[in-house]
Design a protein that fits this description.
Largest sheet: 4 strands, mixed
Helix content: 10-25%
Distance between the termini: 37 Å
Shape: elongated
Oligomer: single chain
Order of helices and strands: EEEEEEEEEHEHEHE
Strand content: 35-45%
Strand order of the largest sheet: 1-8-2-5
């Protein structure tokens, strides 16, 4: 029995179980043949997709090869949450029901993804008024570095932003220093220098009302901008 399923996700992970090619479906284990397609209609390498079993909570997943594909075996007779890696976040998308049948089951999944070009690093923190990264930032930045190691062609800009409190020149300098601190962290993790640029924008690009504490907090942010993939 062979089923063809097409899954489309508008936005987009990180337990990954590598499996060898030439896998064969059985009555107990369904074969999933996955291809990821991005907004440019190309099939990118290094995309992480995972399937979380509803009954056992086990995670099955892999990473796309140079052709944007991978194959994986998962137990039949369960429903799976499909997850996709977006920078440092994991997000649930849909449920995939894989029934148990009298014979082998194959599924072909085409996953269409449109990755945002700008993403806020919500879990990156600095000392107040300084460009010193706090230890709590390590997890998010480590995950970003790992993603860039998988997506070898990706180039990004780290953008620093502040609220409008204080002198404009000081805010500009602070935003530049914070962006450079994130870039330096990524370079220490093995990311090539020509793949990451840092820019500070001071208080010139607010995304919220600076007249409220909540708005100021949103404006004090570090962003990742994808330049190319």
């Amino acid at each position: 029995m062979k089923k063809i399923i097409f899954l489309a996700f508008l936005m987009p992970y990180s337990i990954v179980y590598a499996q060898t090619p030439a896998l064969v479906a059985t009555k107990e284990m369904a074969l999933l043949k996955v291809v990821v397609v991005n907004a440019n209609k190309s099939s990118p390498e290094g995309e992480q997709v995972s399937f979380v079993a509803e009954k056992t909570k086990k995670v099955y997943g892999s990473i796309t090869d140079a052709t944007g594909k991978f194959s994986i075996l998962v137990p039949a007779g369960d429903k799976y949450k499909v997850k996709y890696k977006l920078f440092t976040d994991d997000k649930d998308y849909s449920a995939l029901d894989i029934p148990k049948t009298d014979g082998p089951v194959e599924f072909e999944l085409t996953i269409n993804v449109s990755r945002p070009k700008i993403y806020t690093l919500d879990n990156v923190f600095f000392d107040t008024g300084k460009s010193t990264l706090r230890p709590q930032s390590d997890k998010a930045l480590d995950e970003l570095a790992e993603l860039m190691k998988l997506k070898k062609k990706m180039k990004i800009e780290i953008s620093g932003h502040t609220d409008n409190v204080g002198d404009e020149a000081a805010n500009q300098k602070l935003s530049e220093g914070r962006a450079e601190a994130v870039r330096a962290y990524l370079l220490k993790k093995g990311i090539a220098a020509d793949r990451v640029i840092a820019k500070g924008y001071g208080d010139t690009q607010p995304i919220a009302d600076n007249s409220t504490p909540e708005g100021k907090q949103k404006n004090r942010r570090t962003e990742v901008k994808i330049l190319s993939e």
